[in-house]
Specification:
This protein is α/β, with parallel strands linked by helices and 230 residues long. 38% of the residues lie in helices and 22% in strands.
Length: 230
């Protein structure tokens, strides 16, 4: 069975899901939580303790659960195309009740009413979407006016030094790290989006104060903005 599928928009196979969940999701979470400005504090400030957040492409729920654990009374809903990862996320959420729930779904057809959420986030998922611009439009649609959009994705134009710093969080040897950096740069970053793509995706979408930037010291791009008021 292939670990890397030629079609990035297909649901993860079970081995793909296991590999990402067990080997890489924790590293991704650590890098996001260390970002500046702090994404958790931004959500705490803008959404508030009783707010609702949608996590699109939630994987095994690591980031969504980090939010629920760090912000009292916050309600997080995660959506992912992988049935295995949704199942693992719901198991990890045991004990949180309806504060963290996960379901299978696709970014370009979100099954929520307009204006349902105070914030919508996506971490490392947009490169897998069949239609990234449509997925972003869907995320904005389900936001309340003024709601926060925060999308983070691997940068196809990332520096090798930034990839090395990211993968250096894994317990690997120098030799294995070198192989991992080249593999990541070719098979993950090489199939992701770049700054020009991200800027094109948001062009004309109903966003206010939108920012598209490379994150210093990380191999990532961030799309940040707020849904325009009605």
């Amino acid at each position: 069975m292939k670990l890397i599928d030629e079609d990035f928009s297909k649901p993860y196979s079970r081995i793909n899901s296991w590999f990402y969940d067990r080997m890489f999701a924790g590293v991704t979470l650590d890098s996001v939580l260390e970002m500046q400005p702090d994404p958790v504090e931004q959500l705490r400030r803008e959404v508030g303790a009783d707010g609702t957040v949608l996590d699109v492409g939630c994987g095994g729920g690591q980031f969504a659960l980090a939010l629920a654990e760090r912000i009292d009374r916050l309600r997080v809903v995660g959506v992912d195309l992988s049935a295995e990862q949704v199942g693992w996320a719901n198991k990890r959420a045991n004990g949180l009740g309806d504060r963290a729930t996960f379901q299978r779904g696709t970014a370009d057809e979100l099954e929520f009413a307009d204006g349902t959420f105070d914030a919508a986030v996506s971490i490392g998922s947009i490169k897998h979407w069949r239609d990234p611009r449509k997925g972003l439009a869907e995320m904005i649609r389900v936001l309340r006016p003024g709601g926060l959009l925060n999308v983070i994705e691997i940068d196809r134009g990332c520096l090798l030094s930034d990839v090395r710093a990211l993968l250096g969080r894994l317990p690997v040897t120098r030799f294995t790290l070198g192989l991992g950096v080249m593999g990541f740069r070719t098979f993950v970053a090489g199939r992701s989006i770049d700054l020009d793509d991200a800027q094109r995706f948001v062009l004309g979408l109903p966003l206010a104060d939108v920012s598209v930037r490379r994150i210093p010291g990380e191999p990532n791009i961030q799309i940040l903005g707020h849904k325009q008021a009605s």
